[in-house]
UniProtKB/TrEMBL annotation:
<dbReference type="Pfam" id="PF07690">
    <property type="entry name" value="MFS_1"/>
</dbReference>
<feature type="transmembrane region" description="Helical">
    <location>
        <begin position="271"/>
        <end position="291"/>
    </location>
</feature>
<feature type="domain" description="Major facilitator superfamily (MFS) profile">
    <location>
        <begin position="18"/>
        <end position="466"/>
    </location>
</feature>
<feature type="transmembrane region" description="Helical">
    <location>
        <begin position="227"/>
        <end position="251"/>
    </location>
</feature>
<feature type="transmembrane region" description="Helical">
    <location>
        <begin position="169"/>
        <end position="190"/>
    </location>
</feature>
<dbReference type="GO" id="GO:0005886">
    <property type="term" value="C:plasma membrane"/>
</dbReference>
<keyword id="KW-0812">Transmembrane</keyword>
<feature type="transmembrane region" description="Helical">
    <location>
        <begin position="141"/>
        <end position="163"/>
    </location>
</feature>
<keyword id="KW-0472">Membrane</keyword>
<feature type="transmembrane region" description="Helical">
    <location>
        <begin position="440"/>
        <end position="462"/>
    </location>
</feature>
<dbReference type="GO" id="GO:0022857">
    <property type="term" value="F:transmembrane transporter activity"/>
</dbReference>
<feature type="transmembrane region" description="Helical">
    <location>
        <begin position="341"/>
        <end position="358"/>
    </location>
</feature>
<feature type="transmembrane region" description="Helical">
    <location>
        <begin position="202"/>
        <end position="221"/>
    </location>
</feature>
<feature type="transmembrane region" description="Helical">
    <location>
        <begin position="109"/>
        <end position="129"/>
    </location>
</feature>
<dbReference type="InterPro" id="IPR036259">
    <property type="entry name" value="MFS_trans_sf"/>
</dbReference>
<keyword id="KW-1133">Transmembrane helix</keyword>
<keyword id="KW-0813">Transport</keyword>
Length: 472
């Protein structure tokens, strides 16, 4: 039974302090997704392990974050969003410490899995803002915290590249531990507890079913390029995961207190927003996969020949653009609503990709295009939580935002696999080494353009919905 609505906190810290604490926590969590990217090729040597084993160091973080976000959102609705967010951030700190002390691959995988759980802080933070802030402040605050899904990675890449270039790789995780501990302290001190809780019991079968189904599908997507898309392991995980999710959905429709209320998720505004989220997630990550490789590719192979650190600084302004868009997004949302904001963001991304397709790219072109993508993502990611929260009961905002974050993650995971496959299959021999050729990058940009165009169309079709507050 839902706790009656009323004052949602027992103390009243300054709203900017709450927003700042939640945004910092979100950036810390998303930073963990890219912290090892500069070292990915060197991990087998650093850990004295096979490439298959070290691939799990990257994969496990994605799996943990994908599984955690909808589950933690539901737990936040039931037992208190701040409480669950603090637990997740504490697990992130623990995972960072485990990774910092890891001499071999196995404890590093465990630590990275714990780090991935921290991503649940972002949808919980958005729901906390919905509970605490008035409508005048809510749009910009939600925009800022939602944008941290992309900001952490964009800003974290050059930091990770610099640290890994000048220090032992364990220093990355000591830094992550310190950042996570600071975020935990800020949340504990500045974010008040919410009294809007649903109570109830944990849907254990739902948790297990969702975890198993998502693991199967995401493993197939993330490892299909290595295993082979037609290989038995890929097909087993893909088909098995899909079957489990179908059975999970059948069960969720029949249980009294489901992990995810699929009837609410099937409402047109929620469904269309989640589908648009998948497309925008794909558009975001298509650039994040293709542009770094093009910037670092040798000039004789058709690239720009930049070292990793310089390439990271070319890409970093995209993250800054996402941050700077939050107050703009808030003003646009208050004046015209979240739907035009999502349409505008997706259209800007599409224009950026169109330029990439039609232009012989130089460094400044990539800087400009990636900046446009950052602006579009900042606007689009600001709109999605508001669209979701307007269409669901106030008591389900945590679970609904968690599911929306999962949809964005599904889009980025799919983009990572598809773009990697495209670039791997379009290669030329340069100096005895296989390198991606121009046609592979062109295909990647076309796919990004298609994803952005699909997102624009889906956003335009989202119907109007009454505020959840009005419904309940």
């Amino acid at each position: 039974m839902t706790t009656p609505a009323g004052p949602s906190s027992t103390r009243a810290p300054h709203p900017r302090a709450v927003v700042g604490a939640l945004a910092f926590a979100g950036m810390c969590a998303s930073f963990m997704q890219t912290i090892l990217i500069p070292l990915q090729a060197e991990l087998p040597e650093l850990l004295s392990a096979s490439r298959d084993d070290t691939a799990w160091v990257i994969t496990i973080t994605m799996l943990a974050s994908a599984i955690c976000t909808p589950i933690s959102g539901r737990l936040g609705d039931m037992f208190g969003k701040r409480r669950v967010a603090l637990v997740l951030m504490a697990l992130l700190v623990l995972g960072s410490l485990v990774a910092a002390l890891s001499p071999t691959v196995t404890p590093l995988i465990i630590g990275r899995g714990l780090q991935g759980l921290g991503m649940g802080v972002i949808p919980l933070g958005i729901s906390i803002l919905h509970d605490l802030l008035d409508s005048d402040r809510l749009g910009s605050a939600v925009a800022l915290v939602s944008a941290t899904l992309g900001v952490g990675g964009a800003l974290g890449l050059p930091i990770s590249a610099y640290v890994s270039e000048h220090y032992d790789w364990h220093a990355l995780f000591w830094m992550a531990s310190a950042l996570g501990a600071l975020a935990l302290l800020l949340m504990w001190r500045l974010v008040p507890p919410s009294t809007l809780r649903t109570g109830g019991r944990i849907d254990t079968v739902g948790v297990i079913g969702l975890s198993v189904g998502l693991t199967g599908i995401l493993l197939a997507i993330s490892r299909g390029n290595e295993w082979g898309w037609g290989a038995p392991p890929t097909l087993v995980f893909l088909i098995g995961g899909a079957v489990v999710l179908v059975l999970w959905g059948w069960y969720e429709l029949r249980v009294a207190d489901p992990l995810v209320d699929l009837r609410v998720s099937a409402r047109a505004p929620v469904l269309m927003t989640n589908l648009a989220s998948i497309a925008m997630g794909f558009a975001l990550f298509a650039a994040q996969i293709a542009f770094p490789q093009l910037l670092e590719l040798p000039v004789r192979a058709g690239g720009l020949g930049l070292p990793l650190l310089q390439a990271s600084f070319i890409l970093m302004p995209s993250g800054l653009a996402m941050l700077l868009m939050s107050p703009v997004a808030g003003r646009v949302e208050r004046r015209w609503g979240p739907k035009p904001l999502l349409v505008l963001g997706a259209a800007i991304i599409a224009v950026g990709y169109a330029i990439a397709v039609l232009t012989d790219l130089a460094t400044w072109h990539i800087l400009t295009i990636n900046l446009m993508i950052g602006i579009g993502i900042g606007l689009g990611y600001a709109a999605m939580p508001t669209l979701i929260m307007r269409a669901v009961p106030a008591s389900e905002t945590g679970a609904a935002n968690g599911l929306n974050t999962l949809m964005r993650g599904l889009g980025t995971a799919t983009a990572s696999a598809v773009i990697a496959t495209v670039l791997a299959q379009s290669v030329i021999e340069v100096g005895g080494e296989s390198q991606p050729d121009a046609s592979g990058f062109q295909t990647a940009f076309i796919l990004g353009l298609v994803a952005a165009a699909v997102c624009t169309a889906l956003a335009a079709l989202i119907p109007r919905s009454r505020s959840s507050a009005a419904e309940h």
